[in-house]
Amino acid sequence: MAKIPTSRIGRTAKLGGMVAGQGLKWAGTRAANSARSDEKAQAANEKRAMETAEELVARLGEMKGAAMKLGQVLSTIDFDVIPESEREQFKERLSSLRDDAPQVPFKDIEKVLKKDLGGKISDHFAEFDEQAIAAASIGQVYRATTHDGRDVAVKVQYPGVAEAVETDLRNISVLLPLVKRLAPGLDTKAIAGELRERIGEELDYELEAQHQRTVARALRGHPDIRIPEVDTAMSTRRVLVTEFVAGRGFNEIKALPEDERDHFAEVVYRFFYGLLTRAHLAAGDPHPGNYLLADDGRVCFLDFGLMRYVPQDYLDGERALARAVVEGDADAVHAGLAALGYLPAPHEFEPERVLEQLRSAGEWYFVPGFRRLDPEYVRNAIEVGSSPRSPYFEQMRRQTIPPQALLIRRMEGMLFAVLGELRAGADWGAMALEYLSDAPPSTPLGERDATHWNGVRA
Q1: Which listed residue, 93, 148, 411, 413, has the most CB atoms within 10 A of its CB?
Q2: Residue ranges of the alpha helices (H) in 141-204?
Q3: Which residues have C-beta within 8 Å of that of residue 11, sequence separation ≥ 6?
Q4: Where are the chain's structural domains?
Q5: Predicted confidence (pLDDT) per residue in 334-348, tens digit
Q6: How many CB atoms lie within 10 A of CB 394?
Q7: Whole-angstrom distance, CA of residue 438 vs CA of residue 117
Q8: What is the pTM of this model?
């Protein structure tokens, strides 16, 4: 793989060249459309949108850093201009940037290890497998053994990626016009602002280690959840060393019997909503690669770089809004959306209409009763919540997501998709009330979870 360009000139040239080139192509398409029928003009616009989307994915994938992370964040957004038949495939390609990241040669990674840890790798590890077991947007993960015999996972930041990200964060505004072409209703400035804050934090593995220790401390001794312990003494700003946990990955879990998949799914659901409600932490990356079924039967959660502390007052507002949806209180739903910042012009929205929108899109979560999710159910719900075919589409285009909620909405959307892939069944609505209204546990697993959290608070 070519060296990551770290200079501002190099990074800006890649992004700016893409945006300028696409701008000229769009101008050419508009000029040609003046002589075309409406049908042919629409087809030309869709073709141009797809070519733009393809180039966006290719360039972001090449660059890593914040530019690539932007692609992952955008995978949760609906793109109005892209042909509907291609939209989900495009979003999947954006999302896959995390998994398809080309690996950096070990000789370059070795330089980071030597500089940050000091001395040779053999000074710190008895064994170190030079073949990465995972690659992501800002680093790669390796398996190693310490001199005292512990099996560990070593996450190492790409050399030069911090400088590249710093440049990307300054240049992110260059990409906004292109993103705006694909999603005209998107508040790109809000997303860019949240991205700057979150990615700046994600670059600091010491901060990620702090997050992981916080979560591990809160969940230590949990009967169903496992968090790898951090080796603080061996970790630095660019190197994170944690306990290695063996287990089955997502593809193996999807092949398990129904009852085992349901159990796994409920643990995953309770982990993310419990962490948000009880620890005020939004874990924004429920990617299937970030948890596994450990050999001891617990679900092990990985990667704590993308997290946000949610203030109590804002979380209270989100919970009150969700309760109003469950209770069917249209006026309270409208008032809650306005107060939290979802409705730029509240007077333009009818309370009953926004209530219908939220209940339709979030039926699985807002309406109690056993429901087995599957990919088709998830696609239909997403269509109601974002597709131009949705009866609420014009209303949704005038709404926005406040920056404080971006990570929460990302968590919910990705988690919903994961549960659908698992074809998991549960009374999700009854479980939701435990976190929205402090309702008593609705399942035996919920009782164990509540007992644990009550012990933490005691």
Answers
A1: 411
A2: 161-182, 188-202
A3: 5, 63, 67, 164, 167, 168, 171
A4: 8-102+161-201, 204-228+246-458
A5: 999 999 999 989 999
A6: 10
A7: 46
A8: 0.78
